[in-house]
Design brief:
CATH superfamily of the largest domain in chain B: P-loop containing nucleotide triphosphate hydrolases
Largest sheet of chain B: 6 strands, mixed
Structural class of chain A: mainly alpha
Bound molecules: adenosine-5'-triphosphate, magnesium ion
Number of domains of chain A: 2
CATH class of the largest domain in chain A: Mainly Alpha
Structural class of chain B: alpha/beta
Strand content of chain B: 15-25%
Distance between the termini of chain B: 46 Å
Order of helices and strands of chain A: HHHHHHHHHHH
Largest sheet of chain A: none
Strand content of chain A: under 5%
CATH superfamily of the largest domain in chain A: MetI-like
Helix content of chain B: 25-40%
Shape of chain B: globular
CATH architecture of the largest domain in chain B: 3-Layer(aba) Sandwich
Number of strands of chain B: 9
Number of helices of chain B: 8
Oligomer: heterodimer
Radius of gyration of chain A: 25 Å
Strand order of the largest sheet of chain B: 5-6-7-3-8-9
Order of helices and strands of chain B: EEEHEEHHHEHEHEEHH
CATH topology of the largest domain in chain B: Rossmann fold
Largest interface: A-B, 28 and 39 residues
Shape of chain A: flat
């Protein structure tokens, strides 16, 4: 069976192909422009928005306690940074803890579901009910029954974050190639081997998709729960900072806190996307770049 | 590499009037009998839905027959059956070598211990330079070779192939046919090969079981009395053409007999 050198040759020479014709030249130029545009265009939009914002505030002479100038937001951010940073850490801690518990709970439950159809039948409807009930309507109840504020916040954020992990991982664990499963059976794999060597790796891309959604939702859950929990003090996060600044008509600080929350959300998304890329780029189709 | 010291010509397995009914009335197989000897290359040839895959799955113990049985001569254990599906059925997250390791891995043999065997099998299919590649990086034909290497790695007594080359282009398919015959010479394996192609079955097999559908069963067996090793020249010989005519004729009669 040593006659496959042709087959290999063709697949190798593809990579080193130089620009050969007009179409190819155009395609490469478009690809280059898109690469730059992907970063440049949003930046241009941002600059335009900030400029318009600044014009509206200046021309209409809007007082800063109604709409602050973007520059003022930035200076407030810098001035209040120690206060805002502490608040951010509080929110971030709840978010990350909730995400961790969501991953453990979601994956754990998904694994139990695939091991026993009866457990899945019994519990899945309640997972759905928990998901479709708006967290803002459960949160007040939670804070009545849970004394510890951190635990209450965590519970709220977890309720929002865990469902995408659960449903995606369950889907992934069940989307195993049928022939591969037969193969495992032919070679006498036990349940544990099937789970570890077949189901979990098959579920990984699905799980990572769920994780990216859950990351954003955990932040939303944490912020919403803080709004409901209210009470200030040393342990208050960004949401409470916004509420408090609102009472005092400190609008620039509201904007500064908002900026931090949004930035944190984006950062979480980017980190989880990077994680996903690192884990999948070697083998998964989603990580392969194909020409259009 | 031949397994368990099986001797060519000895009986290997017998299907004894196997029936398989799905649901209430889908008779996938009815009274199917087949005798397989060591060193045989048997093709199951027939129209879609005549129960070829069902027969293979019963031999592989993936499903149980409704009635009848499969009898094995001699020691039949885990790893004595290798299987190759129509799709390469590789684990995309594992490298070529790790994919070939799978059968051993599942019986608790470490990669280091299995390594030389894995390399041997990859060499047999001509992929020794690709052990660290991921399936995604290989062409369809190369993936199929990995699949074959994986089936060989346990030194199976029999390899079941379910239309392994059906999804490949004709040129690649011809090449893999030649290579499969070469491999049969080197490894001395017994094969049951499912195919839709008269030409493929004549080129490869020493016996062809022509099957009919509804209910699925063996209509007749055609012996291809042409020794091994065979090579490309067999394809253009007059005896090859005559056998193809015989088998096509048999297929035609089988469909007429049914209606
Ligand atoms: N799990 C199943 N449940 C119900 N019916 C089935 C099942 N497996 C196969 N069948 C039916 O049994 C018959 C034989 O199927 P089988 O897959 O063995 O045919 P085949 O000869 O392999 O066909 P093909 O050439 O299309 O692969 C078909 O009518 C098919 O619909
Ligand atoms: Mg089939």
């Amino acid at each position: 069976m040593a006659h496959i050198s042709d087959e290999i040759e063709t697949s190798r020479s593809e990579a080193s192909k130089a620009i050969v014709d007009v179409d190819e030249y155009r395609r490469q130029r478009r690809a280059r422009l898109e690469r730059i545009g992907k970063w440049l265009m949003p930046l241009i939009v941002l600059a335009l928005m900030l400029w318009m914002w600044n014009r509206i505030v200046t021309v209409n002479e809007i007082p800063h306690y109604i709409l602050p100038d973007p520059a003022l937001v930035i200076t407030t951010l810098a001035a209040d940074i120690s206060l805002l940073w502490n608040a951010l850490l509080v929110t971030l801690r709840i978010t990350l803890l909730a995400l961790a518990v969501a991953v453990i709970g979601g994956v754990g439950l998904a694994v139990i579901f695939t091991q026993s159809r009866f457990v899945e039948m019994s519990l899945f409807p309640y997972a759905v009910i928990l998901q479709v009930t708006p967290v803002i309507s459960i949160a007040p109840l939670i804070f009545i029954y849970v004394d510890n504020r951190t635990v209450g916040l965590l519970l709220c954020a977890w309720i929002v974050a865990f469902f995408p992990v659960l449903s995606n991982t369950t889907l992934g664990l069940n989307s195993v190639d049928h022939n591969l499963r037969d193969l495992f059976r032919i070679y006498g794999a036990n349940r544990w081997q099937e789970l570890v060597h077949l189901r979990l790796p098959s579920a990984l891309p699905y799980f990572l998709g769920g994780l990216r959604i859950a990351g954003g939702l955990a932040l939303i859950g944490a912020v919403v729960a803080e709004y409901v929990a209210g009470t200030g003090g040393i342990n208050s996060g960004l949401a409470f900072t916004i509420l408090e600044a609102g009472y005092r008509l400190n609008i620039p600080r509201m904007f500064a806190a908002l900026l931090l929350i949004a930035g944190t959300g984006v950062l979480i998304f980017l980190i989880l996307s990077l994680l996903s890329h690192l884990l999948l780029h070697k083998w998964h189709e989603s990580a392969v770049k194909r020409e259009a | 590499m031949r397994h368990h010291g099986d001797t060519v010509g000895d009986g290997l397995l017998t299907m004894l009037s196997v029936d398989k009914t799905f649901g209430a009335d889908i008779k996938a197989l009815k009274d199917m009998s087949l005798q397989v000897n060591v060193g045989d290359f048997i093709s199951l040839l027939g129209p879609s839905g005549c129960g070829k895959s069902t027969a293979l799955r019963i031999i592989a113990s993936l499903i149980n027959p409704t009635s009848g049985r499969v009898e094995w001569d001699g020691d039949h254990s885990r790893g004595s059956v290798g299987i190759v599906f129509q799709e390469p059925t590789l684990m995309p997250w594992a490298t070529v070598a790790k994919n070939v390791w799978l059968p051993h891995r599942l019986s608790g043999i470490s990669f280091r211990k299995a390594r030389s065997k894995i390399e041997d099998c990859l060499k047999v299919v001509g992929l020794e330079d690709f052990s660290n590649s991921y399936p995604r990086e290989l062409s369809g034909g190369m993936k199929m070779r990995v699949s074959i290497a994986r089936a060989l790695v346990t030194d199976p007594r029999i390899i079941l192939m379910d239309e392994p080359f059906a999804a490949l282009d004709e040129i690649t398919r011809f090449k893999l046919n030649n290579d499969l015959l070469q491999l049969k010479e080197n490894v001395g394996c017994t094969v049951i090969f499912v195919t839709h192609s008269v030409f493929e079955s004549v080129f490869l097999s020493n016996r062809i079981a022509v099957m009919v559908a509804r209910p699925g069963r063996v209509f007749e067996e055609v012996v291809i009395d042409e020794g091994y090793p065979r090579d490309e020249s067999f394809r253009t010989s007059s005896s090859y053409a005559a056998y193809c005519r015989r088998v096509s004729e048999s297929l035609r009669r089988s469909t007429n007999a049914k209606t």
